[in-house]
Amino acid sequence: MEEQNTEAKLKNLLKQEKIQLWNPPYTSDNNQPGQQQMQELAERYAPQVSLSVPEVGVALESIRVQAVNRGKGNKTFRETNVASLELLLPRDARKDLKTKNYMETRLDVLVQELVDRIGEEHGLRYIRLILSGKTLCPDKRLDEQGVKNHSKIMVLRVTDNELKQQMHKEEEERKNKEEKKKSQDKSLQRTQKGFQILSERDGSEDPITTPFLEIADQRGNPLKIPDKERKALILAMGFHEKGRSLMKRKQYDNAVCHLLKADGQFRKCDSALLTAVDNYAVLQLDIVWCHRALEALSCLDDAKSRLQTAERCFLQCYGEQQERLMMIKGNTGREQVLFLRLYLLQSLLSYLEGNDTQARDKLSKVESLYSRLCLDSEKMNQLLLLGFTEREARLALRACQGDLQDAIVHITNHRKEKEDLKHRERQKRRTRMDNISTLTAMGYSRRDAARALHRADGDMNKACGLLYLGFERDASEAALRQTGGDVQSATQLLLENRGVLPSELLPVSPPSTSPSTSSPSSEEPTTSSTSTEDDDLVNEVLEDISRHEEDYLDLTLEEEQELIGVIKSYLSRGPAPTV
Question: Are the beta carbons of 74 and 95 closer than 8 angstroms?
Answer without folding.
Answer: no
